[in-house]
Amino acid sequence: MTDTKYSLDEIRLRLNELDDQLLQLLSERRRFSIEVAKSKVETSKPVRDASREQQLLVKLINNGKDKYQLDAPYITKIFHTIIEDSVLLQQNYLQNLANPQQSRKPLARVAFLGSKGSYSHLASREFFSRKNTELIELNCDQFKEVIKTVESGHADYGVLPIENTSSGSINEVFDLLQHTTLHIVGELTQPIDHCLVATKDIQLEKIKTLYSHPQPHQQCSEFLSRLSGVVLESCASTADAMQKVQELARDDVAAIGHASSGKLYGLQSIQSDIANQTENHTRFIIVARKPVEVSTQIPAKTTFIMSTSQEAGSLVETLLVLQRYDINMTKLESRPIMGNPWEEMFYVDVEAHKDSESMQLATQELIKITKYLKVLGCYPIDNVKPVIPDLNA
């Protein structure tokens, strides 16, 4: 038996056919994911079933190895993405049922920091694309302007970066949350791929001025320390920095930003992967004038702020309340209270629905032992943590 030889064009044609089949199957799988969500409305089952996901992954890995000679990491990576998409689809379906007024709005006005192409702009598009919502995009020069644009009713939502895995918390945003009447209604964690962009492919040693927002300057500090004689200039956003480089049209200036955003300004990437950490992510929050109703079938996060007395052990006492009710705290941030020297406001994120019994009881206790407590929002958890398959089970 001789091997059949195919021309390159025939191979590519067959690959195209297979790709189309894969797309068709993925679309069909998505439709069935919605059917699963509909059945869970009737049974009140939670969106995620870790044991079911575990069994599914193990079965897929074993079948892939035995029948199709596919290795476990390959199958796991693909189906983690498919499962994440299914979870987010089901969450979105249940959220639309819980918030019928919002689900009937196919258009939303969204305020964000910087011009088109900024990381906040990219996050806005990513978050609302999951909800099939068209955007009227309102770019702002400052975080304060984003807040005011939503508070005044000129925007329905605001998108704000809250923390980065490399540079830490964004204090200005935390301080604004202390005084706003807005509610946190969602979150999004985005990978941040910093690179140097310029009008042409110039050598690094020729760069004299580098434009960016202060946050990327911090997040790329190790790379920047190796550049000799470069002046760092701060801009309102990475998009504004790229626009500045475009306008200057010089061979000795560059900007830090996303490569795809650079193309919007006619810039090209001259150095990629310049962040201090290879896994560089920013968490964004979405704020609105009214809170969102979160289905109890969806993993939820609650954010609140509190101030405690100045007595020793006051903060520990509040944390013990969360421990007593088995509530997982994912974030604790302190910021000074303006006008009250040496007093701090604590920002707390917990993985709990605000209306759950444990959170209700914990909140009642916290109110008694704190000087001030305010819930900033309860919203669906954005990060779908993958189940790690146990092949030895």
TrEMBL record:
Quick one: where is this thing mainly located? cytoplasm
Q: Where would one find coiled-coil regions in this protein?
A: 8-35
Q: Which GO terms describe its biological process?
A: chorismate metabolic process; L-phenylalanine biosynthetic process
Entry keyword Amino-acid biosynthesis: yes
What GO terms are given for molecular function? chorismate mutase activity; prephenate dehydratase activity
- The segment(s) forming the ACT domain are 303-380
The record's GO CC annotations read: cytoplasm
The UniProt record gives the binding positions of substrate as: R12, R29, K40, D49, E53, S86, Q90
- Name the UniProt key words of this record, in alphabetical order: Amino-acid biosynthesis, Aromatic amino acid biosynthesis, Coiled coil, Cytoplasm, Isomerase, Lyase, Multifunctional enzyme, Phenylalanine biosynthesis
| Highest taxon in the source lineage | Bacteria
User: From which residue to which does the signal peptide run?
Assistant: none
The Prephenate dehydratase domain is annotated at 109-289
- In chain numbering, where does the site feature Essential for prephenate dehydratase activity fall? T282
Which Pfam families does this chain map to? CM_2, PDT
Pathway annotation? Amino-acid biosynthesis; L-phenylalanine biosynthesis; phenylpyruvate from prephenate: step 1/1; Metabolic intermediate biosynthesis; prephenate biosynthesis; prephenate from chorismate: step 1/1
Name where it's found: Cytoplasm
Q: Return the SUPFAM superfamilies for the record.
A: ACT-like, Chorismate mutase II, Periplasmic binding protein-like II
EC number(s) from the headed UniProt entry:
4.2.1.51, 5.4.99.5
Q: Which parts of the sequence belong to the Chorismate mutase domain?
A: 2-94
Q: Which reaction equation describes what this protein catalyses?
A: prephenate + H(+) = 3-phenylpyruvate + CO2 + H2O; chorismate = prephenate
Q: Which NCBIfam families match?
A: CM_P_1, PRK11898.1
Q: What does this protein do?
A: Catalyzes the Claisen rearrangement of chorismate to prephenate and the decarboxylation/dehydration of prephenate to phenylpyruvate.
Q: What is this protein called?
A: Bifunctional chorismate mutase/prephenate dehydratase
State the organism of origin: Vibrio qingdaonensis
